[in-house]
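QUALITY CONTROL LOG
STEP: pairwise intake check
CHECKER ROLE: data steward
CRITERIA: each record must contain a sequence immediately followed by its structure tokens, with no blank fields

ENTRY 1 OF 2
RESULT FIELD BELOW
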Amino acid sequence: LASVVLGLTLLSGKSRDKDQKTLGTAVASLDSSLCNNVGNKDLRDRCFTEIGTNTSNLDVCNKIGSPKGKSYCQYKVAVDTNDTVLCRNINDAEWRDSCLKDSAARNLEQWLCNDILDGKVFNECNLKVAVGLGQWDICNNILGLPDRENCFFEVGTAANDPDACNLITSSTLSSVFNSKVARATKNPDICKLVRIEEIQKDCIKAFSY
């Protein structure tokens, strides 16, 4: 029995080595037809994935057996080719949402965020577009007050726009916001808007020269 197990182990090892070699040849030559000669299904999927993503070839991606792996490959092709329609056709919800978020950030198109199902990814998408465009009104789309106010903070400080601070209810966040804008714009008067005493002192101190 031990000799049989040993023989099967050696055979399995040789088969895997052969598959690895075939995979390497296929990827090096970008010849997806060679992937069909890979016996191990995981390595075969890896073969199609590497060639599909490297060549942005959707047909190769569709040969992947694993649903998750196929969606990842489609995601890579969609992002690399800037194909927002393909993003919507990805079956896996996680990769679909990631694709829409990345496309929205790349093209600075907020409407793409609206098709995202996951709330966290939806918020991240709107934040990226808002910062990219410098438009804090987009932050109003964000779910949940903390994330929404963080968006006002990020957009406002990036653009040194004190008006965005008026939308922040958090004393700490608004104080840090006004302090940063005061220093960036070299305007000590903005320090007067800082609500927290210690942060206000530091803000005023920055202009004591």
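ENTRY 2 OF 2
RESULT FIELD BELOW
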Amino acid sequence: ALDRKKPFLVGILCSLAILFRPTYASYAAIFLLWYSMNRSESSRDIYRNNAARLALGILCPTIFVVILYGALGGLKDLWDATIIFNLKVYSGAGASFSFWEPVRFYASSAIAAMFAILYLWKKERASLYLWAGLFAASVLSLLLLYRHSVYHYHPAMTFFLLISAIGWVRVTDIVARKWRGARFVIPAIVLMFFIFMTFRANTVQLVLA
């Protein structure tokens, strides 16, 4: 999607995400904005066509599911499962945990993420814009879901770890200019740290205790 190609396929994937969890509709909004952006007057029609194809891709699976449920007499079940259930369960009431509790276990990657942001701002600003939009959409979904479960953090943390990985590569490159061993030592330390944190399972223990 970064090069604004295959908008119909991207739309289908967005639609599947929305059908899985309606709060992921924010991803579709980000991609619609992304495909609608034009860099010059001469390319405006191209971007409009791409946005239209994306919208069509978003609608097709959704319409298909609605028609399928309607044919089976299950429109009420679809409405209850996708709309009513989410409004009742994730209405902002009920038990939850501290917003920052799971986040702090990723805090060590914040420095690497800053390196990545600075690098992308200079070299690949378009990539940074798209990442920022998708990350914001993930955080919005998390807030709407009211933090009932740790797995609600997964989309946002996935995008965060993705950009932090770029940052760790950047940090490694910088240090390797002075010390060649950094190309092996830094990735090994980062990998061992996250393996340790994963098997320690302290995020689940502290959040769900």
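INTAKE CHECK: passed for both entries
DESCRIPTIVE NOTE, ENTRY 2: The longest helix spans residues 44-71.
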